[in-house]
Q: What sequence folds into this?
């Protein structure tokens, strides 16, 4: 077990005083981002990315990933106290969390949510520690065709597993790919799709898209809904925490099931939001307290929170091992790698050992620190939420603008951010998913490059994507994922057709 | 997120018309991509596929998918509302000041523009007193200045006011 040795040297890196400070600052900022409406994990990390330009890559990734953990924790606070999910993945937490708060059990609900998040994340990190190096090792032998097939699988699962109509997911995704192609073509060095404008020479930066689509778009949606916070107060003291901790082991089956669901949904790019709903739904059906779900059942908080955090964490596995991010936030972190001059993909495990294992070690410690911080800071965070939206909104707009400007020190990007914001608002209102669009902008260049290299090797024949067992298998899985809804429907119909015969 | 359809309340555009407009715009975008790709060349060149090869097919799929969305949208419910006019006015009350802000940033610098944006929001939408408005509107850019320029050494765009102050 050579990797364990690397993991320990990773811990040594993380425990340097500067890195611990960075970690605490990251978690605090992250929780704040998770709590504030309009700022989510993806755009929060995107906005704060420029703060890390002067740091070493290892400190930078620790800070950014800790912002991400903080945002995952923070989403639960607004759901439980205010019945307003700060993040889409904490929607399912409101179902039972808020009723608990109404019954005066806000402390129990918050403790359960934070602890479950922690358990989910820990499970996912252990899985990453054990599995990621193996996947990376395996992926080292990938050629261009295999690399393209992995991208194909990732994007096909988006279409097959999304709850939006497949044609909308497809269009959103292809718009992302198209935006990625604007500017200088990396293979031929030729300009394309710029239509003679100078501003488009460098193409569209996905960070601008993230800040606009998620940040500005979310503020517009919040404005439309006319948001008013009417929250419950929360008291967390040691007694409540310990009592809840005594009670939680009873739900270990739910926990374990939610961990597995979360990890699965996180690695396949379905993401944290469906994972939390699925986990809640299954727990409701299976649990013997299922009847009480929705009325303030602690198990109804445990299930979605565990799954959401497990999914959010395990989304980093494909990002680290394959260079294919499993969620928009993981995509932003991947963008960070490129900015710091690191090449994402399986070689990272060979060439940047300190970086990779520092990150993995920081996941363990970051979640412990995160749990402690959120448990102690709830009253402060709840007070922040009482600041009226007419103050919060312009401040968030200012930070989005700063984030957009600092990406390339370009004021044109600030205008693009607003355009993306309006587009994001319209797309969200018309049920177009935004995550595939963002992931496509990030991966567009790499997907195109592997596609063209493959075609070059085969002199234009598409047969290269089925030329050996490995690539055919991945492509085959991709097609299964692509037509998953149709396959599942056909299967249900087949069973329904057989059922009457059995009688 | 919450349910985005509204069936009661004041008047507003129907969800169907917005849906159709969005799908049509996306189809147009796809056509622009295809046109641009044709300019760059979509055939087979000396170094393999030409620059426009990949984006051309992306544009084709966008147009195809948008046609499906147009057909689906056409069969949508005419009575479901996209949003009330009053809600859309709220949305515009963010978009318009932000658009002006975006225009001002290259000219006045980010700090002065931000001060104005926050002040307008608090005074106009929040109806706060002058004291509170001025305090928050000045404090946020000042703290931003400290955080970015001093602690993290990231320069932000400045305008004539910063020049006068010699920053």
A:
């Amino acid at each position: 077990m050579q990797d364990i040795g690397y993991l320990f040297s990773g811990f040594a890196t993380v425990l340097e005083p500067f890195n611990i400070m960075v970690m605490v600052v990251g978690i605090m900022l992250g929780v704040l981002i998770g709590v504030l409406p309009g700022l989510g994990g993806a755009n929060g990390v995107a906005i704060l990315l420029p703060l890390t330009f002067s740091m070493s890559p290892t400190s930078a990734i620790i800070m950014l990933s800790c912002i991400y953990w903080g945002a995952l924790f923070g989403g639960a606070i607004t759901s439980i106290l205010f019945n307003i999910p700060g993040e889409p993945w904490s929607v399912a937490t409101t179902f039972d969390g808020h009723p608990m708060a109404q019954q005066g059990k806000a402390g129990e609900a918050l403790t359960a949510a934070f602890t479950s998040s922690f358990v989910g994340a820990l499970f996912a990190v252990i899985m990453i520690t054990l599995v990621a190096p193996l996947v990376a090792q395996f992926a080292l032998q990938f050629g261009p065709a295999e690399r393209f097939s992995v991208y194909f699988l990732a994007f096909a699962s988006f279409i097959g597993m999304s709850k939006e109509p497949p044609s909308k997911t497809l269009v959103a995704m292809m718009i992302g790919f198209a935006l990625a192609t604007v500017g200088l073509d990396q293979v031929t060095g030729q300009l394309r799709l710029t239509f003679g404008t100078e501003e488009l020479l460098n193409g569209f930066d996905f960070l601008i898209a993230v800040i606009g689509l998620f940040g500005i778009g979310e503020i517009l949606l919040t404005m439309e809904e006319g948001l008013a916070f009417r929250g419950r107060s929360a008291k967390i003291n040691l007694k409540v925490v310990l009592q809840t901790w005594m009670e939680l082991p009873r739900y270990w089956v739910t926990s374990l099931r939610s961990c597995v669901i979360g990890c699965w949904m996180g690695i396949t790019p379905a993401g944290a939001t469906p994972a939390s709903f699925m986990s809640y739904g299954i727990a409701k059906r299976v649990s013997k307290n299922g009847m009480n779900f929705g009325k303030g059942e602690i198990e109804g908080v445990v299930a979605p929170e565990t799954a959401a955090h497990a999914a959010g964490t395990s989304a980093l596995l494909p990002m680290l091992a394959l260079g294919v991010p499993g969620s928009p936030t993981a995509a932003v972190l991947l963008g960070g790698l490129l900015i710091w001059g690191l090449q994402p993909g399986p070689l990272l495990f060979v060439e940047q050992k300190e970086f990779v294992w520092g990150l993995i070690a920081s996941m363990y410690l970051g979640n412990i620190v995160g749990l402690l911080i959120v448990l102690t800071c709830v009253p402060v965070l709840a007070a922040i939420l009482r600041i009226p939206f007419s103050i919060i909104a312009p401040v968030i707009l200012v930070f989005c603008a700063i984030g957009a400007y600092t990406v390339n020190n370009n004021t044109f990007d600030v205008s693009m951010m607003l355009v993306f914001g309006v587009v994001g608002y319209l797309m969200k209102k018309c049920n177009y998913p935004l995550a595939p669009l963002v992931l496509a902008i990030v991966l567009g260049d790499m997907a195109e490059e592997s596609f063209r290299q493959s075609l070059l090797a085969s002199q234009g024949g598409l047969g290269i994507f089925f030329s050996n067992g490995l690539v055919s298998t991945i492509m085959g899985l991709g097609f299964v994922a692509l037509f998953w809804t149709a396959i599942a429907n056909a299967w249900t119909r087949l069973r329904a057709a057989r059922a009457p015969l059995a009688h | 997120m919450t349910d985005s359809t509204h069936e009661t309340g004041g008047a507003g555009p129907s969800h169907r018309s917005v849906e159709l407009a969005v799908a049509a715009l996306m189809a147009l975008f796809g056509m622009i991509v295809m046109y641009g790709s044709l300019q760059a060349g979509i055939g087979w060149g000396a170094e393999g596929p030409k620059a426009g090869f990949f984006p051309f097919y992306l544009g084709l799929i966008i147009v195809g998918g948008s046609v499906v969305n147009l057909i689906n949208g056409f069969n949508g419910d005419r009575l479901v509302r996209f949003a009330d006019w009053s809600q859309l006015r709220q949305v515009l009350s963010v978009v318009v000041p932000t658009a002006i802000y975006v225009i001002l940033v290259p000219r006045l610098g980010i700090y002065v523009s931000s001060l104005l944006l926050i002040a307008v929001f608090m005074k106009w939408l929040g109806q706060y007193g002058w004291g509170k408005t001025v305090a928050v509107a000045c404090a946020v850019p000042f703290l931003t200045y400290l955080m970015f320029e001093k602690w993290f050494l990231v320069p932000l765009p400045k305008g004539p006011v910063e020049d006068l102050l010699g920053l």
Notes: Residues 85-165 of chain B form one domain. The first strand of chain B starts at residue 44 and ends at 45. Chain B has two domains: 15-74, 85-165. Chain B touches chain A through 72 residues (CB under 8 Å).
